[in-house]
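Q: I have two molecules that I believe assemble together. Could you output structure tokens for the complex as a whole instead of separate predictions?
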Amino acid sequence: MRITIALLLLLCHCVHATETVNDVTGMNPIQVAQVLAPTELEQIVTAVSGHAGPIAIGGGRYSMGGQTATEQALQLDMRQFNKVLEFSAERREIRVQAGITWREILEYIDPHGLSPQIMQSYANFTVGGALSVNAHGRYVGQGPLVLGVRSLRLVLADGQVVDASPTHNSELFHGAIGGYGGLGVIVEATLPLVENSKLVRQTQLMPLGDYAQFFASQVVDNPDMVMHNGILYTDDYDSVRAVSYLRTDAPLTVTERLVPLDRDYKAMRAALAVASSNGGAKVRESVVDPLLLKRPQVQWRNHEASLDVRELQPISGPDYSYVLQEYFVPQAQLEHFVAGMREVLKAHKVKVANISIRHAKADPGTLLAWAREDTFALVIYYRQGVSPGERAAVANWTRQLIDLAIAHQGSYYLPYQIHASREQFLAAYPRAEAFFALKKSVDPSNKFRNKLWDAYYLPPDNRANAKEL
Amino acid sequence: MPGIIHVADTFAAFLDDLQTRRAPALYQLSKLRNGFEGWLKIELYLWLTERYQLQPQTDVGVEYKVWLDQRRGQMDRETKQCDLWVRDAAGHGYHYIELKVPFANNNRGKLFLSASDDFWYMSRLLAVDQSAASGSAILVGAGFDEHDWTRAIDEAVAYAGNDPAMVQLRVGSLKLEEAPALQWAVMTKRYAPRPGT
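A: Yes, here they are, computed for all two components at once.
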């Protein structure tokens, strides 16, 4: 048996012994025992059932706090496990291996006039990664990705391959989506598709105090509204530019069907650099954005869906990194939460490059749901230093923002730096204990680990010695 | 998961319901003995959506191009258009269904041959790549000699050459007042679930 396992591991395209892995921020180097890049399901099954130590799962590496690795783990690098397994234009459905990126899906389905029902704003992420964090995008009337998944296939800790959907093995389905690789390896997903329509972009500047009403009256029930986000300007945190994408029959102004892979992002990067400089927020509001968003734009939905994270790069340098955080608050709490957030960010002189407001429908039941009701999301993109002192300062104001979100019956997002205390985590994710109970039953030896679960999951034999973060 | 379990049982339930709701229509069909395949397809499609709360184009749909397993030496085409598809309630994919309505006229031998071909193709779906739970040919006729009808069905099943353990066959008839009975048969090839399910 051991010889078989060794042979199968050698068959994988890449096996690296003792390797340091990192994420897009460059701030989380982790030495793993081995990186394995499977191309076949059997390799994953063999690795999972045969490996005695911890196993971590990596997709596109866009999480920002070590959610894809832990020390001395076997890291499954899923990016070569990326085939389209089944596609039906009639049924508007695609079944894919989990390492495929959304960009690859877009390239596959675009000729058929179809588009993913839900995906996040950038297309570089893998489907498995997006499912593991229960990502969201800007799609109106949608929300967490769980709303756009028909079924999953998982490899559990004992090597068992199981299918799960909202009605079949539903606890696993609702645990694995948004479960950060804690229950097993997501190896396949079946995703619904929708029509790829032409979209016209419209923008409107308004006081923050008017935004929730605007959203309720103009956006959420508008049948032509496909995507929407707000840009919260951070000079005074009191104005929002609503950016809407509506179905149209107007002629295209952008004729490319997908964003070209070699697009030049200099202008976008310059805008971000300006925005995160001292006084830059005002310049962005009054000069940069009006210029960038001035012309009416008509494009394909898939074009807007195929944005590339490269427009934000370079994300990190030797002494800095651009980092994301995200907070969720019930619709009625938006204005009040922003007032508190403003105080925290200003008090700590946080170099905010962008705050985007999104909306999500309530999660239908994932155990680690971040949208327990219809929710506004505030995505903060900021620049920070990487010295121990600067990291500690970020941890400090991050915990303040988490407390603020919890006080507003909200939550915070888990794919980013792990600064929350265990108490904060449990307050923001009240069904975490149910998730932990499920993990204990399907992964009794705590095989599936990463920095997130090392921080918050207490295996039964470690509970007595647990220390609060 | 919304869907059906067994194609023949589902079709039998559909006919029972049809007899209750649309008896005059069935009478007309039996008398006409002609060309009601399109009507039957849409009637069955609508009944499936209502009875099982299936979402159109997500759980059930009409007209579907199925891919055929090219490993068979006699395979002469890559795809075949089938009439209906419906989701499997146990999560094993989809049931693909071809409807055939041979009517009792001079061409009935040719039409039986065609029905026989249909089941042969539906038995050779490229199962894994399109999540096939089963492939079926459903025949509905009127006015056939009972012996001829049964023999033709048996021959169609034998011609398809499947492992008997994977074949389900159900035949029946629908008694109508003052009109010949509607005869029906459902031939189903079940496909093995994908490993791990």
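A: One point stands out. The CA atoms of residues 120 and 160 of chain B lie 4 Å apart.
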